[in-house]
């Protein structure tokens, strides 16, 4: 992929494998679900944008104090940019397809068919499931495929007459991701402790290094 | 056996395992901090400092220090010389391993 080596790809995967991304994604999906349940769908769409500014400070506070930091090479940054552009195009194609389907004259019969009416409540969770699977493939983090599968399963619950609505399916998915992510994050914190004494030692050894 | 002799030409600064690992990691990133290298390689602070010192003295890495609050922040980058030395070393090793049929 993009001429990037295996070691670089492993570094890239490791960068997102501490559980923090899971927590943010779980929180975002859960909040979108809550907004949907209280009929504030438009505000729900803003949730990821509102959460984004917290990503860097949270990473600096909890991750970088434990495992340090590095910056990716421009080749990786270009690969990321290209992938996100493709995802946005993919999202727009889906959006345009859906809008066309809903406004196209003569498609009323198909729109009102039992199958479509049954599947519609599951669509938000299915789309989230697809997005999570794409994240899994790109980051090479298998558990995101599991999250994607969970989203689709919760989505299909909404197609049965169980009183489950799209907002609920997103909330269930978000809470599941948040819990699994939190456990993953706790394991990461346990395995990578911050040692204050070592910080002092590091300052000393770096001081010695500087003097040498 | 000139082919075997080629292994004697490896740069000893690069060939040392910890330094080779440091250079390999740095070749994958734009820059990295001290803690990242330490946590990735599992080296002690003193050990890592000593290796970085040797690599810096041989011009293979650039080390920038700054203060974030009261703490020292050390950012390390691979130089062009370091990149070339690593590439050369890997080619020699590749040829040697080919010779050994590994």
Describe the structure.
The complex is a heterodimer of chains A (212) and B (102). Chain A is mainly α. Chain A has helices spanning 6-15, 20-37, 41-67, 74-103, 108-111, 114-119, 123-139, 142-157, 166-191, 196-211, and one strand at residues 70-72. Chain A starts with 5 loop residues before the first helix and ends with a helix. The relative contact order of chain A is 0.16. In chain B, 25% of the residues are buried. Chain B has a three-stranded antiparallel β-sheet. Chain B contains six helices and three strands; from the N terminus they run αααβααββα. The longest helix of chain B is centred in the C-terminal third of the chain and has 20 residues, at 80-99. Chain B has 102 residues and is of the alpha+beta class. Chain B has helices at 2-5, 12-15, 17-28, 34-41, 45-57, 80-99; strands at residues 29-33, 61-68, 71-78. The A-B interface holds A 5, 7-8, 11, 64, 66-74, 192, 198-199, 201-203, 205-210, 212 and B 24-25, 28-40, 45-46, 49-50, 52-53, 65, 71-72, 74. Strand 1 (70-72) of chain A pairs antiparallel with strand 1 of chain B, so a sheet runs across the interface.
In short:
The complex is a heterodimer of chains A (212) and B (102). Chain A is mainly α.
């Amino acid at each position: 992929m993009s001429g990037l080596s295996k070691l670089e790809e492993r570094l890239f995967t490791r960068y997102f494998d501490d559980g923090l991304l899971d927590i943010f994604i779980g929180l975002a999906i859960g909040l979108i679900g809550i907004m949907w349940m209280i009929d504030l769908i438009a505000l729900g769409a803003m949730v990821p944008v509102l959460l984004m500014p917290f990503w860097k400070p949270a990473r600096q506070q909890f991750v970088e104090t434990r495992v340090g930091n590095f910056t990716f090479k421009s080749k990786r940054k270009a690969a990321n940019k290209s992938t996100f552009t493709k995802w946005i195009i993919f999202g727009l194609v889906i959006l345009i397809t859906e809008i066309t389907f809903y406004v196209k004259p003569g498609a009323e019969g198909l729109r009102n068919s039992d199958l479509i009416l049954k599947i519609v409540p599951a669509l938000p969770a299915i789309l989230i499931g697809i997005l999570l699977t794409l994240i899994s493939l790109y980051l090479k983090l298998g558990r995101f495929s599991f999250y994607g599968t969970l989203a689709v399963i919760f989505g299909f619950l909404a197609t049965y007459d169980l009183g489950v609505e799209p907002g609920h399916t997103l909330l269930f998915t978000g809470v599941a991701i948040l819990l699994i992510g939190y456990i993953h994050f706790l394991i990461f914190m346990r395995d990578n402790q911050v040692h204050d004494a070592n910080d002092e030692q590091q300052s000393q050894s770096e001081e010695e290094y500087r003097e040498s | 056996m000139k082919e075997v002799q080629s292994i004697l030409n490896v740069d000893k600064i690069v060939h040392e395992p910890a330094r080779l690992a440091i250079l390999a990691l740095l070749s994958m990133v734009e820059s990295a901090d001290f803690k990242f290298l330490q946590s990735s390689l599992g080296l002690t602070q003193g050990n890592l400092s000593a290796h970085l010192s040797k690599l810096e003295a041989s011009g293979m890495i650039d080390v920038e220090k700054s203060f974030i609050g009261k703490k020292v922040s050390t950012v390390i980058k691979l130089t062009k010389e370091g990149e070339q030395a690593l590439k050369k070393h890997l080619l020699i090793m590749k040829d040697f391993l080919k010779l050994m049929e590994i």
